[in-house]
Write a structure and sequence with these properties.
The chain is α/β, with parallel strands linked by helices. Helix content is 42%, strand content 13%. The chain contains 16 helices and 13 strands. Strands 2-1-3-7-8-10 form a six-stranded mixed β-sheet, sandwiched between helices. α8 packs across α11 and α12 runs antiparallel to α13. The chain is globular, with a radius of gyration of 24 Å. The N and C termini lie far apart (49 Å).
Length: 420
């Protein structure tokens, strides 16, 4: 199956945003109201993937059942594609289950006053829609991806069979970002920008896979939480719009015929400089080629792509973002070390920071840092610690290691809360 747009006349969306909260313990999120309006506009524009009447906005619902009824109505529609978006506060109850806050949610009473993630999961599992897309922009939203992938869950099994794509704004046990005074939350700001402006060098359609990789690149470059995804089957080939940036212009001249041999007995005339064969000019990879490079190239080969200018700056950024998604943790680390050896410290710092941000990997990060401190080249250690400080912040590093169950306190020296 190739990339495709949803059936515009037979697809539905529910965009939920909660910006005001009655409980003073839950801070308001003024930017969320702007999220809802802008995302709806992007999806229902003349070139968008939805008809305006098929995209419902639900702003500041007061009670959980308002959201539950709207989700059930969306999921029950016999649609080609359904899109469910929520922006607000994600709260954990005492059992650690994710709940989505509504305006009248009370802190410490999440079980009874907020929307359980289970409601969304159950509704999507029984939906007759061909494709389901869930986008969560809230704290602890990575718990949604975990919930969707629980092996023992019959719901997860149903989703795996029929195809659901989940994108969340942050890893489990991490915090999404809403900058005070900003027009949008950080995650949704970048999502809207991608839908509006497109991705240079990508294909003609903005698939969920392309959107996710671009979101990873943009957000981690800014030092923001790394988004998470759970895609099943062919759902990631569904597109949320046309790529208005268009495909990259060709950089190779067309293949020319060889010069004519000329009169008998005379050597052929040498070709003019413009007649260089296309086969002799290295061709820059297209977006699918970049993903293949991310899967297959060694660290040295990746470093050479930058040194030889085979990829431009933006293509190389997409390559690194793809590496963090497609390669195992230890392989990503080794690629970063190869970049350090090649003098690409800034790119290595970015790569190590991106791979360190997932809270599920802090134990692995601690293990490798201990190995480097005791036996590895100090240059690797320094760049990695710099990347963690940039992405996480000096005062938060020890807490992250402790939360991951990583016993590094006695083996790594800490100064002012930072591992050094």
């Amino acid at each position: 199956m190739s990339a495709r747009l949803p059936d515009r006349g037979n697809s539905r969306a529910l965009i939920v945003g909660v910006s005001r909260f009655a409980d003073s313990a839950i801070p308001d999120l003024p930017a969320v109201a702007n999220n809802v309006a802008a995302l709806r506009n992007a999806l229902t524009a003349p070139a968008g993937v939805l008809m305006p009447e098929n995209c419902r906005a639900l702003v500041n619902p007061a009670l959980p059942h308002e959201v539950g009824a709207a989700v059930a109505e969306l999921a029950d529609a016999p649609a080609d594609t359904v899109i469910l978006y929520y922006a607000g506060h994600g709260l954990l109850n005492q059992q650690g289950a994710l709940h989505l806050a509504v305006s009248d949610t009370r802190r410490n009473f999440e079980t009874y006053t907020a929307v359980p993630m289970e409601w969304l999961r159950s509704a999507l599992a029984v939906s007759p829609a061909r494709n389901r897309i869930l986008i969560l922009d809230c704290c602890f939203s990575g718990r949604a991806a975990e919930a969707m992938s629980t092996e023992s869950s019959a719901v997860a099994a149903a989703i795996e069979v029929y195809g659901t794509y989940t994108m969340t704004s942050s890893p489990a046990n991490s915090t999404s970002i809403a900058v005070p005074g900003a027009q949008f939350t950080v995650f949704t700001q970048e999502l809207i920008a991608v839908l509006r402006d497109g991705i240079p060098g990508a294909g003609g359609l903005l698939t969920l896979r392309d959107i996710y990789l671009e979101m990873v690149r943009r957000l981690t470059t800014r030092g923001m939480p790394r988004p998470q995804r759970l895609g099943t089957g062919l759902a990631e080939l569904i597109a949320l719009g046309h790529n208005f940036a268009g495909a990259a212009p060709p950089v190779v001249p067309p293949l020319l015929e060889p010069p004519s041999p000329g009169p008998p007995g005379r050597a052929p005339a040498p070709p003019e400089p413009s007649e260089v064969r296309a086969s002799s000019v290295p061709k820059r990879p297209s977006a699918p080629d970049i993903e293949n490079l991310a899967r297959t190239q060694t660290g040295r080969q990746i470093a050479s792509l930058k040194a030889n200018k085979t990829l431009d700056h933006q293509q190389f950024g997409r390559l690194l973002a793809s590496v963090t998604v497609l390669r195992p943790f230890d392989e990503v680390v080794e690629i970063a070390f190869a970049l350090i050896d090649a003098g690409e410290r800034d790119n290595a710092r970015w790569l190590l920071g991106a791979v360190s941000q997932s809270s599920l990997r802090w134990e692995e990060v601690a293990r490798r840092l201990i190995e480097l401190r005791e036996r590895g080249p100090r240059g690797y250690w320094v760049v990695w610690v710099e990347s963690i400080r940039h992405c996480v912040g000096r005062k938060d590093i020890a807490r992250r290691f402790k939360a991951a169950g990583a016993d590094v306190e006695s083996r790594l020296v800490k100064t002012n809360g930072a591992v050094t």
